[in-house]
Amino acid sequence: MPYTTVLFDADGTLLDFSRSEDEAVRATMLFAGVQPDDEKVAIYSRINDGLWKMLERGEIEKSVLLYRRFELFCEHYGYGGVDARAMAREYMEQLSQRGYMLDGASALLDSLYGKVRMYIVTNGVDFIQRRRYAHSGLDKYFDGLFISGELGFEKPDKRYFEAVEAAIPDFDASSTIVVGDSLTSDIKGANNYALDSCWYNPKGKPCTDVATPTYTVSDFDGVYNVIMGVKER
Fold it and tell me: Yes or no: is domain 5-16+100-228 CATH 3.30.930.10?
């Protein structure tokens, strides 16, 4: 039987976070008087990704992460006179204004709309994510948005999914699937809550032992087929 409830991750799954991040980081650097270039953006992204992985493991608080990434960036380049916390505030404002669908995401959602219940499950800051979803047009497809900043827990924490279940009417785990691009957040979260999962892996990354997806697909046609019951492991 096909699934009836789909919990979609957003960034990297439906939304082009790399583009949003790149634009927001460059605008933030200019705000701080730093000339942006590809290397600086890549260094920031690497620092940010590492801190989010720490957050998923419970090793750092989100309130600290939001400014610590810019402190580490400034320390890396020796920008002693740059206000890292002002950069953090500017970045969040810049990022909140940028939400772009990945190619093919709208077509996937159009094909699923009205056939299944769809919800967003995402780690992030509430006002940033809600603005970005509205900007992208993503919000019109979904029955609800579950943002870690509002729930108080991050994926893959089991308590995050407990809150999601409590908020969805007639939640049935056996007919629910998590779709996402992150093994450490989406797929591990599904494993922790005994939910089926579909790992969206368009770049063909190797599957590590951090989590075990029920299905692995490389494109949105594969996502559709899994959800609707044409399932290939």
Answer: no
Q: Tell me how crowded residue 23 is: count the other CB atoms within 10 A of its CB.
A: 16
Give residue 27's pLDDT. 98
Residues 6+ apart with CB under 8 A from 175: 1, 3, 4, 5
**Any idea where the domains of the chain sit in the sequence?**
5-16+100-228, 17-96
pLDDT at residue 233, as a whole number = 45
Summarize the confidence of residues 138-155 as an average pLDDT: 94
pLDDT of residue 171: 97
Which one from 9, 16, 22, 196 is the annotated catalytic residue?
Answer: 9
Q: What is the pLDDT of residues 60-100, one digit of tens each?
A: 999 999 999 999 999 999 999 999 999 999 999 999 999 99
Question: Exposure string (b/e) for 58-79, b if CB count within 10 Å is 16 or more?
Answer: eebebeeebbbbbbbbbeeeeb
CATH of 17-96, one of 1.10.150.240, 3.30.470.20, 3.40.50.300, 3.90.1150.10: 1.10.150.240
| CB contact at 8 A, 34 and 44 | no
Judge whether 83 counts as a catalytic residue: no
**CB under 8 A, 24+ apart: contacts of 166-171:** 168/5, 168/117, 168/119, 168/143, 168/144, 171/5
Decide if 5-16+100-228 and 17-96 have a common fold.
no
